[in-house]
Design brief:
The protein is of the alpha+beta class and 64 residues long. It has helices spanning 15-19, 42-53; strands spanning 2-5, 24-26, 32-34, 60-63.
Length: 64
Amino acid sequence: MKIHLTSEKCQGHGRCYSLASDLFDSDDLGNAVVLVTGELNADQLERATVAANNCPEYAIEIGA
């Protein structure tokens, strides 16, 4: 499983990088940036799922 971010949807609430700072960061405008582009291990998958579930814009998806 991988993290897929639709940047156009992100409005910079910061929940993803607050919940999983090793998986997400912010750009100069405060919008999310994915730090891990490869396959997620079990621990990363769990935290990425929590971050995706807390994104108010549904900008994060976890999938193949």
